[in-house]
Amino acid sequence: MELRIRNLSKTYANGVVALDKVSLTIPKGMFGLLGPNGAGKSTLMRTLATLQECDSGSVFLDDIDVLDEKDAVRRLLGYLPQDFGLYPKVTAHEMLDHFAMLKGLSHKGRRREVVDGLLQQTNLFEVRNQRLGGFSGGMRQRFGIAQALLGDPQLIIVDEPTAGLDPQERVRFHNLLSDLGQDKTVLLSTHIVSDVADLCANMAIINKGNVLLCGEPQKLIDALDGKIWARFVSKHELAAFQHAHAVISTRLLTGRTLIHVYAERDPGDGFAPARHDLEDVYFATIAGRHQALALAR
Ligand SMILES: Nc1ncnc2c1ncn2[C@@H]1O[C@H](COP(=O)(O)OP(=O)(O)OP(=O)(O)O)[C@@H](O)[C@H]1O
């Protein structure tokens, strides 16, 4: 299914503009929504998940009016919120069975089939009789996906699902999501660039309620060819370089500071062409390098 968001706006009572005329088209497959903390991602996710009202704009899931036909959307939606509580003393199987009942799966045999299937799909079958309170972060997130998948949703929204997972669990969770992306629309909100680089066929970057950039990750990277330059600087040189160049990122590498700058042509000063990636796209966009944006759009 395709999700079409047009001019979606939301200002909270305290005056914070969380969404400012956001327009995005999200096709089938995995779509990454990338942005720093406070960008408006959760506001957008909650609005799409019919849990929160916006002020203006429209959202359609194929021909369903998401803002109006909430029940129809909920039947097609699986949602994994950023924070969700679990009853610590209940086992994974008991909890999922309970959720399945709430979803209307009243036939015991059929429910068992669905619940066991989801526990297998999320690699939790072996631990199904363990209490949720003892689950690791990764197990919790996979359990969150299992409950989101009840009812065979066509649109799956996951809000920052890999924050706090160790690398092994992250890979496991990525595999699970990418399987889902084969035939469903999966919207992944994250501030972790590599989640999007690894998984998503399409992406957008949002900040302060605005969509800054949208496209296919590789094309957005290619649009920066020849425009990202790198060099090491010492700590006391950093401020001068930041003053003289459009520094988009600084990172410590084996104790030295590597800086990446945006420049249309060789900036001199000892810079060499950088091997750039999606992080450069992200940082260049957030830093407001408008030349980069114009090219990549
Ligand atoms: N209920 C609320 N009332 C007032 N302001 C809010 C409310 N919820 C969010 N905000 C503000 O709206 C802005 C967008 O918040 P939102 O949670 O949507 O961003 P986010 O990109 O999901 O960030 P994070 O990654 O930190 O969750 C932030 O400035 C936030 O402080």
Word description of this protein:
Pfam families: ABC_tran. InterPro entries: AAA+_ATPase, ABC_transporter-like_ATP-bd, ABC_transporter-like_CS, P-loop_NTPase. This is ABC transporter ATP-binding protein. The chain is an alpha/beta fold. The chain has two domains: 3-215, P-loop containing nucleotide triphosphate hydrolases (Rossmann fold), CATH 3.40.50.300; 221-296, no CATH class. 34% of the residues lie in helices and 28% in strands. It contains eleven helices and 14 strands. It has helices at residues 41-48, 70-76, 92-102, 108-121, 137-148, 167-180, 193-199, 217-222, 238-244, 278-286, 290-296; strands at 3-11, 17-26, 29-34, 56-61, 64-65, 77-80, 155-159, 185-190, 202-207, 210-215, 228-233, 246-253, 256-262, 272-273. It has a six-stranded mixed β-sheet with strand order 6-7-8-3-9-10, with helices on both faces. Strands 2-1-4-5 form a four-stranded antiparallel β-sheet, with helices on one face. A four-stranded antiparallel β-sheet has the order 12-13-11-14, with helices on both faces. Strand 4 (56-61) and strand 5 form a beta hairpin. The longest helix has 14 residues, at 108-121. It is globular. The chain starts with a strand and ends with a helix. Adenosine-5'-triphosphate (ATP) is lined by residues 12, 14, 16, 18, 35, 37-43, 191.
